[in-house]
Amino acid sequence: MLCSASKWLIILIIFAFCACSKAKGPDTDTPVIPVEKSLREQYEASSSLWPKPVLDEGIPLRELALMPTSPVDPVAQRKVLALGKVLFFDPRVGRGDNSCSSCHNPATYWVDRKKTAEGIATHHRNTPSMENVWYLNGRLFHDGRAKTYAEQIAEAIESPIEMGGNTYTLPAKLSAVDGYLSLFAEAYGDQDISRQRILDAIAVYSQSIVSGETAFDKFLKGQYTALSDQQIEGLHLFRTKGRCLNCHNGPFLTDLEYHNLGYAKDRTGALDNGRFVATGKESDKGRFRTAGLRNVVQTYPYMHNGSVATLDEMLELLSQGMPQKNGQQVNGELSPHIKNLRLTSTERKAIISFLESLSSEQPQTERPVIPQ
């Protein structure tokens, strides 16, 4: 009897223990709900771990990234660079009225900040920045019609509304200047001044012009205090609600493709055909190459014709689906990437704050001594 009673006592104790354990179950089995990370915490990580961006169907993810290095070697090519720089700043390369630097002014981030360029006459398009042009090889000018740097430079020199020069008679013109004979000899080993060498030297110098390190670059390198909370919010909006990554992506924030945003009328009221000039394809009417956004805050006004004065105005237009204001109109078909986003004023300010983080220090370029 004692053994039987002991056995039942043990069973009761085990049963009571199990019952108590089950009673405590709900407390121990309650799932832990993770606290949602702040935007700063989500972005203070490798870009591969950032929140998923909003991209249109068929658009590959090309994440924002650090800027690669220009192919120009400043040491090995220093003598050609020195020659190219002099040619870039010398008005005699053209008709004598202005030089490449007249529109591409280093003091204003290699643009002139005018609505449209002013050379010998007033151009119908805005001056694009010279920064990072090495990345545009084969897509030069707003419409991409020039495939090589030599082609682009020659057209600018010979244009009757830009520099009004003649690249075929230019070698003889420069050969009459003793200072150029020595510069060409240092750069190329002899005093022969040819059209090809002139264009080559200017091309090398042009490709050496790059933007500097930005706050956003520092952030990408792990210096997370480089961006403010508002700038991180702007970065997030840029990649998500703003849908900007569809076209402005990669290290220079451009897909290098051609898109139609409307605003096709030039200063005379004529429709600018854009990419159609280069391809002859009806589908390319009104399309222009996506501008890179490094130093975008400094390179106003905006659009191929300089018709948008400020970034806030540009963002407001994009947010509203690019309504054609001030008598503007679409030439061809508006890009399917354009949507009515309804960005608030606060959201636009945050995106602009992020774009400010893409600014580098003002270029410190000493103008060369022009040979006589």
From TrEMBL:
Report the EC number(s), separated by commas if there are several. Answer: 1.11.1.5
Cofactor annotation: heme
Which enzyme type, at the first EC level? oxidoreductase
Instruction: Give the binding site residues for heme c 2.
Output: C244, C247, H248
Describe the processing and modification events after translation: Binds 2 heme groups per subunit.
Stored Pfam families: CCP_MauG (PF03150)
Keywords assigned by UniProt, alphabetized: Heme, Iron, Metal-binding, Oxidoreductase, Periplasm, Peroxidase, Signal
- Cofactor, free-text remark: Binds 2 heme groups.
Which ranges carry the Cytochrome c domain?
Answer: 229-359
Signal peptide range equals: 1-23
Q: Name one GO cellular component term.
A: periplasmic space
Known InterPro entries for this protein?
Cyt_c-like_dom (IPR009056), Cyt_c-like_dom_sf (IPR036909), Cytochrome_c_Peroxidase/MauG (IPR051395), Di-haem_cyt_c_peroxidsae (IPR004852), MauG/Cytc_peroxidase (IPR026259)
- Single GO MF annotation: cytochrome-c peroxidase activity
Please classify the protein's predominant subcellular localization into one broad category.
periplasm
Whether Iron counts among this entry's keywords is: yes
Q: Where does the record place it?
A: Periplasm
Binding annotation for heme c 1: C100, C103, H104
From the Swiss-Prot or TrEMBL record, give the protein name: Cytochrome c551 peroxidase
